[in-house]
Amino acid sequence: ANLRPSSPMRTLTHSHSSWEQPIYTTRAHVFQIDPTTKKNWVPASKQAVTVSYFYDSTRNSYRIISVDGSKVIINSTITPNMTFTKTSQKFGQWADSRANTVFGLGFASEQQLAKFAEKFQEVKEAAKLARDKSQEKGETMSNHSQESGRDTPSAPLPSSINGTDDEKISHVEPEATVLKTENDRLKSAVEQSNTNTKKWETELQTLRENNARLVDALQESSANVESWKKQLTTCKDESDTLRSKISELEAQCNEANQEKQKNAQLSARVQELETELQDKEIELENLRKQAEIIPQLMAECEGISGKLQAAESKNKELEGRVHVMQLDIDESQQKQGNMKGELKNFMDILDGKIDELHEFRQKLSKLGVDN
């Protein structure tokens, strides 16, 4: 019998799903490249989440898996062609051609990033060794299958074998048993493959739904960005308006300060004028008091003038008498002596009156100068 069907059996058994075990776990912020721009990073998690390396002992494969709640945000199978690149002190990335995306991880420290990169290199080398062993095993089984195929046609047919029917049956039964075993294994592998296909279809559907959600979130984020741009433009316009108003207010404040300085100067000048006015009022009051004395002085002046006129008339009369007395001097020496005594007394009185008159005139002249 030809054993070539063993090759597809091996392929199916490698696609067989098995229990996976985590070999390394850390925490990081997960990002994916923007599928539109291929430049910007889109956050896949709102906060740091668990990121783990898983090893499938049956398929001899390695995967990086991260789940945020019930959402699978990383499901990346490590291949020998993948490269983990450190783009900063705490950020690294790798491209997954099967998922058609680039994953990015932001760590809390440089040590965590270095440890993850080291583990990625170890897993990558392990995946390469597994692939090389798988290829060697495949080539070995293929060569064995080809050799078996070459040997089978050269074997003698049952009809050409010389012997009994029991001998013929004894040669056929081992081959039938092998084929039956292979068929059973093939059936089990196909069933398991169908189960895995359904599982992968479910995961694919989940990924499509997540992708649709990411697209909606991206569109919403773009709309929010446009809204924020409009709000920023409005805020800038309001800021410019406020700045112009502030400039106007500052100019008005400067003008107000200048007005305050002028008002202070005017207030000082008004105070000086009020002081001068009070001095003038005091001086005017003194003049008023002096003016009240003037009528009395005028009355006294009139009285003195009357007395002066009477004295003058009396003086004239006396002068007439002196003249008459001088004429009568010769006539009467005795009367002359008496008259000289009286005249002397009178002259003394007259001199006193004249002195009073001169003093009074001096007072009048002073009052006239003051007025």
Automatic annotation (TrEMBL):
<feature type="region of interest" description="Disordered">
    <location>
        <begin position="127"/>
        <end position="170"/>
    </location>
</feature>
<keyword id="KW-0175">Coiled coil</keyword>
<protein>
    <submittedName>
        <fullName>Homer scaffold protein 2</fullName>
    </submittedName>
</protein>
<feature type="compositionally biased region" description="Basic and acidic residues">
    <location>
        <begin position="127"/>
        <end position="139"/>
    </location>
</feature>
<dbReference type="InterPro" id="IPR000697">
    <property type="entry name" value="WH1/EVH1_dom"/>
</dbReference>
<dbReference type="GO" id="GO:0014069">
    <property type="term" value="C:postsynaptic density"/>
</dbReference>
<dbReference type="InterPro" id="IPR044100">
    <property type="entry name" value="Homer_EVH1"/>
</dbReference>
<keyword id="KW-0963">Cytoplasm</keyword>
<keyword id="KW-0770">Synapse</keyword>
<dbReference type="Pfam" id="PF00568">
    <property type="entry name" value="WH1"/>
</dbReference>
<dbReference type="GO" id="GO:0035256">
    <property type="term" value="F:G protein-coupled glutamate receptor binding"/>
</dbReference>
<dbReference type="GO" id="GO:0005737">
    <property type="term" value="C:cytoplasm"/>
</dbReference>
<dbReference type="GO" id="GO:0007216">
    <property type="term" value="P:G protein-coupled glutamate receptor signaling pathway"/>
</dbReference>
<feature type="coiled-coil region">
    <location>
        <begin position="190"/>
        <end position="335"/>
    </location>
</feature>
<feature type="domain" description="WH1">
    <location>
        <begin position="15"/>
        <end position="127"/>
    </location>
</feature>
<dbReference type="InterPro" id="IPR045027">
    <property type="entry name" value="Homer"/>
</dbReference>
<dbReference type="InterPro" id="IPR011993">
    <property type="entry name" value="PH-like_dom_sf"/>
</dbReference>
<comment type="similarity">
    <text>Belongs to the Homer family.</text>
</comment>
